[in-house]
Structure formats: structure tokens, C-alpha cells
Specification:
347 residues; mainly alpha; two-stranded antiparallel sheet
């Protein structure tokens, strides 16, 4: 048993607490749009008179402003096996994505020979209850948690292979699932750029072409929800865009404030500005590491691009809404990833 695995076993202690909390307090009940999305999907899929092609396409159907392929597959599979919907297990599947993220980060630490003990603080940071919504809201858990796991998995596969066709195809498949499982899933094809440039020119071309093709499929017959702001209508709301942007980068600090505190927004915005510009500075001074395969610079840069695009899209789309929405629990898996990346970049 190597040292890395021994430390990984210790790092499972926060995981035990996290899932123990869920098994203690988790319930088998829908929340918010679970009823319309999950129950509606089951009724439509199993009790309609449509053909199998229409039912297959239903898995890719739009739900609010997203397509949620992974959620649809898991829901249909569960009902086909059990004969009923169990929201407790749907939440658990979404929650297990955090364990998947920990395993991916463990593989990256081991690959680049970082200190073995780092997996322990990573685990304590990752398994927090800031994103508690994703423990009892299946739609959120199977979207926000899962897409982060799928994206870091895609980046890990691309990073490990360094040019292999099998790994390239596997990464493209995972990226395809990510793209159709959340609104920010398509970012993986952009975020992977630092890693894909290790590959042959043909693979690079195929990667970006497949990403463009899948994105066109995603927006085909897409209908913008009336309750969501229009991107073009928000483009000149500079105060809202910048407020959301920097608040998102520092939103992990909101855990130290009571809900509704007047200090929460300004402090998180200030911390977010510090975090963001620290990232820019660190990536700039270490830019020569981009050409050194023995360093994890490319993987970190890909994660940063994913977070940058996610935060940017949110900031523009929600520029007409209160900044306080940034602190909603369902988004905290992203802010946790920001904190992890920040710690690893400045240590």
C-alpha cells in the first residue's frame, strides 16, 4: 500500500461524516421543480403512446433553461428497475459526485507527485455542507454536482493520456454527457484547450468540431424561458455584471455570515476581486510552465477557464437580479472548487 493511498483512506473521514449526515436527514420527497421535471419525465416516458425514437429524444429535452441528460437517464433507469421513483436515491447519486471529484483530484495529486497529505485538506474543504441544497433537491444534485464531476473527469482523462485515441474518445464521450446535462456543460470543450493542445493536430480539430456540433444540437429548438433575463438585454448592466462576477469568486466566504447580513455582499465582492486577480497574476508569472508536462499547470488552467466561463455566463444572465442569488446553496459546489483551486495556486 503506497503512501498516497494511505492518506486517501484518512481523507475519507470527512466523506463518512458528509454521507452520514445525508443518511440521517435525507428524505424520499420531491422539492421545488422535482415534481414537474422528474415525475413529469416518468409519466411522459413510460405512459405516453409515443414511439421509442421520441422517447429517446425526450432524454435530451429542455427543462427550464437546461437540458438534463444525466438526470433523465438516471430517473428512467431507476423507474425501469424499481418500478417507482425514489428521491432519496436520486439525491444520493448526485451527492456521490463529490466523492468522484475527490478521487479525480487524488489521481491528479499522485500523477504530479504533490505531497501525499494534501488530499486530507482537500477532502475537508470539498465535503462541506455549503451546498446542502444538493443533498435534498434531486434536480439540483443531478445537475450542478454531476456536471462538475463530469468536467473534472474529462480534464483528468485528457491530462492522463497525453495523446491516446482511446482516452480521447472517452473524454469526448464524458464531455458529451456533460454538455447535455447542464447549461454550463458545453464549457468543457473550451476549458480543455490547454490539455488538448498536447494532442495531434487531427485530434485538436476533431475536439473543437465535435464540441461545436454538439453545441448546435443543444441549441436546436431551444426556447428561452420567459422568467430568465435576456443576455442582450443585460449586456449594459455593468454594475450587476461586475457585482455578480466578483461576488461569485468570493462566495465561499458567505458561510461565515448569517443570511441577510449587510456585510456579506461587500466582503464577498472584495474577497472575490482578490481571488480573481490572484489567479490572473499566478497564471501569468507561471506561464512558462504551460510547456512543461511534468507540472499540473495545464490542468489548473483548464479548471480556471471552466470556472471563469461559468461565473461569466451566470453574471451576465443574472445581471438583472439581486447579487444575493449568488450565495444560493446549489451553486456552492462551484465556489468550493474555486476555493480548492485558489489554495492550490497560492500555496
Amino acid at each position: 500500500m503506497d503512501k498516497y493511498f494511505k492518506y486517501f483512506l484518512v481523507a475519507l473521514l470527512p466523506c463518512i461524516f458528509y454521507y452520514g449526515f445525508y443518511f440521517k436527514f435525507g428524505i424520499n420527497a420531491p422539492f421545488a421543480d422535482d415534481w414537474s421535471v422528474i415525475v413529469g419525465l416518468v409519466i411522459h416516458f413510460f405512459h405516453s403512446q409515443e414511439g421509442w425514437l421520441d422517447k429517446f429524444l425526450l432524454l435530451f429535452a429542455q427543462c427550464n433553461e437546461h437540458r438534463e441528460l444525466f438526470l433523465s437517464i438516471v430517473t428512467v433507469a431507476q423507474f425501469a428497475i424499481l418500478g417507482h421513483i425514489n428521491f432519496f436515491y436520486l439525491n444520493l447519486i448526485g451527492g456521490l459526485s463529490s466523492l468522484g471529484i475527490l478521487i479525480v483530484l487524488y489521481k491528479i495529486l499522485k500523477r504530479y507527485r504533490h505531497p501525499e497529505w494534501l488530499i486530507i485538506p482537500i477532502s475537508f474543504t470539498l465535503f462541506n455542507l455549503a451546498y446542502f441544497h444538493n443533498l435534498y433537491w434531486p434536480v439540483s444534485a443531478l445537475q450542478h454536482n454531476v456536471v462538475v464531476f463530469l468536467i473534472v473527469s474529462t480534464l483528468c482523462v485528457l491530462d492522463y493520456s497525453q495523446g491516446g485515441i482511446k482516452s480521447f474518445l472517452l473524454a469526448n464521450f464524458i464531455a458529451f454527457i456533460a454538455l447535455f446535462s447542464s447549461g454550463n456543460g458545453f464549457i468543457v470543450y473550451i476549458a480543455a484547450a490547454p490539455l488538448i493542445f498536447r494532442y495531434l493536430k487531427l485530434y485538436r480539430i476533431l475536439w473543437f468540431l465535435s464540441g461545436a456540433f454538439f453545441f448546435l444540437l443543444y441549441i436546436y429548438n431551444y426556447e428561452h424561458p420567459v422568467q430568465r433575463g435576456n443576455f442582450l438585454g443585460n449586456i449594459f448592466l455593468f454594475k450587476g455584471i461586475l457585482g455578480n462576477f466578483f461576488a461569485y469568486w468570493g462566495a465561499f466566504a458567505s458561510s461565515f455570515f448569517e443570511s441577510g447580513s449587510v456585510w456579506m455582499e461587500p466582503v464577498c465582492i472584495a474577497i472575490g476581486a482578490l481571488v480573481f486577480f490572484t489567479f490572473i497574476y499566478k497564471f501569468w508569472i507561471n506561464r512558462k510552465d504551460f510547456f512543461k508536462d511534468q507540472k499540473d499547470y495545464r490542468f489548473k488552467l483548464s479548471l480556471f477557464i471552466f470556472l471563469l466561463c461559468t461565473v461569466g455566463i451566470y453574471s451576465l444572465a443574472r445581471a438583472n437580479m439581486p447579487i444575493s442569488n449568488v450565495f444560493e446553496s446549489r451553486y456552492a459546489i462551484n465556489t468550493t472548487l474555486i476555493l480548492l483551486l485558489y489554495i492550490s495556486s497560492v500555496r
